[in-house]
Structure formats: structure tokens, C-alpha cells
Amino acid sequence: MSNPVYLALDLPRLDAAIALAQKVRGHIGGVKLGLEFFCAHGHHGVHEVAKLGLPVFLDLKLHDIPNTVAAAMQSIHVLEPAIVTIHAAGGRAMMEDAKAAAGEHCKVVAVTVLTSLDDDDLAGVGVPGGAHDQALRLADLAQEAGLDGIVCSGHEVGAIHKRWKNGFFVVPGLRPDTGHTADQKRIVTPAAARRDGASVLVIGRPISRAEDPVAAARAIEATL
Ligand SMILES: O=C(O)c1cc(=O)[nH]c(=O)n1[C@@H]1O[C@H](COP(=O)(O)O)[C@@H](O)[C@H]1O
Q1: What's the pLDDT tens digit per position in 130-143?
Q2: In the prediction, which pLDDT does 161 show?
Q3: Residue-level pLDDT at 104
Q4: Residue ranges of the Orotidine 5'-phosphate decarboxylase domain (predicted)?
């Protein structure tokens, strides 16, 4: 079974991001390039990271009108990402058009409820039912729209997996111990997320900010 860990390369410098990925490559299954990376380094940065030969997960969290999102998906074909994120809250038509515009070998997954939000945060933006119910509702919508899967926290992945047996589930907000949670609110351990059905484990700071990133990645791998 391939390693489910995708390392989030949320680093400001391209050379540092590539050096980190190179260092830990034996203990990860792929790399995730998000908004911080893409806004700083764009297509050039993605091409440079792709030279490592690891699968590239492009986490752009697209959320706009269907035509704009579909056009953005077409513009990233050339980068040949293995996985791309969009926001489920963009609605069914946006998700359908994004999937139709994606490359044949690219998995399109929809973010349900960000792992940095809790029930109070959701109530603050007018979603009264709580993170769990909202994540399940948006996962159902993503499935109806024909997407490959969703992004959710480890708190919901078990319940969503039960309703969507062959879905592809990306789980961030992972912390190997009870250490520094930073801005994440709905967290679980990588092992718990995997046990509950996660296909991909997105891990950033617990590896990238560790004193010894290789030891941190190896320790996480050993728990899976
Ligand atoms: O789509 C994501 O990857 C994502 C969704 C989400 O709900 N929460 C979340 O943290 N992420 C990303 O996952 C990574 C988590 O980083 P760490 O908290 O440092 O492990 C970041 O790159 C986030 O952008």
C-alpha cells in the first residue's frame, strides 16, 4: 500500500520547499502545494517541484462561478496535478463543471468544512447545524456532482466513508500528539484518520516545523 501522507509545502521559499521534500521523500507519498506556494511561485514553482517525481496535489480551493472555476481548471491541466481542491460551498453546478474541465487523471475533491472552523465559527457565518452535519451535507452534494471525493476533518471522515464507500477522502488538521494545534480546531491523529477511512493524510507543520523533519515524518509513518 502506498504511503498516504502528502506533505504540505507551506514555505515561502521555493528552494527551501524543494529541499524539505527531498529530505523526507522516503517517508511521504506526495506533496501538497497550496495557496501560499502557488501565489508566490505559480506554474514555475509547480514545475520545479514536479521534477522530484512525487505526485503533486494542487490545493487551490477554487470557489467562484462555474464558468470561472472551469476555466481555471483548464489553465492548470498543463501542470498534471494528481489532485485538485475546489470548495463544495460553490454549489453543485460549479462542482460538475470543475470535474468536467479537469484532466482525465486528476482527482477533483471538494472542501466541506475547513478544519480551522468549529461549530461557533460556522454559526457566525450563518450555518447553524454544526460542522459535522454541514460536512456530511456537502459530502453528499459533492458525490451527487460526480466528484472523486472530499476534504474533511478526521472528526467526520468515518461517517462520510460509511455513506460513500468508494469515495476519495483527504484529511488535514492532523496532529501526531496533543502538541501545538496552531490555527486548527478539528484535529485527530494521522493513525485515527487513516483507520476511519482517509485516503490521503495532509500534514504540514508537524513535519516542516519539526526540529528533525525526517525523524518526524518517519515517526508518523510508523503509526500508520
Ligand atoms: O485543503 C486542505 O488541504 C486543507 C483543508 C482544511 O480544511 N484544512 C487544512 O488545514 N488544509 C490544508 O492542510 C494543511 C495543514 O497544515 P498543517 O496544519 O501545518 O498540518 C495546510 O496546507 C492547509 O491549507
Answers
A1: 999 999 999 999 99
A2: 98
A3: 87
A4: 4-220
Of the ranges 88-92, 100-104, 173-177, the best mean pLDDT one: 88-92
User: Has residue 129 got a pLDDT over 90?
Assistant: yes
Residue 150 DSSP SS3: strand
Domains of the chain in start order, with CATH, are 5-223 (3.20.20.70)
CA distances from 8 to 21, 45, 130, 151, 172 (A): 9, 14, 27, 14, 9
Residues 178-205: b if buried by 16+ CB within 10 A, e if exposed? eeeeeebbbbbbbbbbbebbbbbbbbbb
Coil vs helix vs strand at 33: strand
Closest CA to 210 of 174, 180, 184: 180
Q: Whose CA is nearest to atom 8 of ligand 1?
A: 115
Measured distance CA(207)–CA(194) in Å, rounded: 17
Q: Give me the active site residues, please.
A: 59, 61, 64
Q: Can you state the percent helix, strand and coil of the chain, rounding each to 5?
A: 45, 15, 35
Query: Does 63 carry a binding-site annotation?
Result: yes
In this structure, what C-alpha cell is assigned to residue 22?
Answer: 527531498
Q: Which residue in this structure is represented by grid cell 483527504?
A: 170
- What pLDDT shows up at residue 1? 60
**Chain position carrying cell 512525487:** 54
Q: Is 85 in the pocket of ligand 1 (CB under 6 A)?
A: yes
